Amino acid sequence: MSDKFYCNDESRTNGLSLEPGGVTLTVTTRDGKSISYDKVKNHWAYARKVLKLQGDFVVNIMLGQTDLAKSIREGGKGKPPTPPEGKEDTPPF
């Protein structure tokens, strides 16, 4: 069984994450925990920073059906994926 968490505004370290808009990313770790972060404005930069700080502990970083961690680990430098229209601020669970 996995634990699912949703990051609240009090836990934010970037002021931009307090402003409306952006996308929701879900980070899943090796211990089965999933944490969703909404209002992320630059999902590639966010994913790279998570991997830099916790790389081996992170299983995936999901933006919809796209695993940003896998893409970064494989050296992907293509156009960043965008979420489906109207789904930018929808939590995955």
The span between the termini is: 15 Å
Poorly predicted tracts of residues: none
Query: Helix-strand pattern, N to C?
Result: EEEHEEH
**Structural class of the helices, strands and pairings?**
alpha+beta
Q: Estimate the helix proportion, in percent.
A: 10-25%
Indicate the proportion of strand residues. 25-35%
Number of domains: 1
What spatial form do the alpha-carbon principal axes imply?
globular
The number of helices is 2
Strand order of the largest sheet: 1-3-2-4-5
SS elements, strand count: 5
Radius of gyration: 13 Å
Summed up:
By secondary structure, the protein is an alpha+beta fold.
Keywords for this entry:
93 residues, alpha+beta
Describe this structure in words.
- The protein is an alpha+beta fold and 93 residues long.
- It has one domain (3-70).
- It has two helices and five strands.
- It has helices at 43-54, 68-73; strands at 3-6, 23-29, 33-40, 58-63, 66-67.
- A five-stranded mixed sheet has the order 1-3-2-4-5.
- A hairpin with a 2-residue loop joins strand 4 and strand 5.
- The longest helix has 12 residues, at 43-54.
- The protein is globular, with a radius of gyration of 13 Å.
- The mean pLDDT is 82.
Q: What is the secondary structure topology, with strand pairs?
A:
Elements: E1 3-6, E2 23-29, E3 33-40, H1 43-54, E4 58-63, E5 66-67, H2 68-73
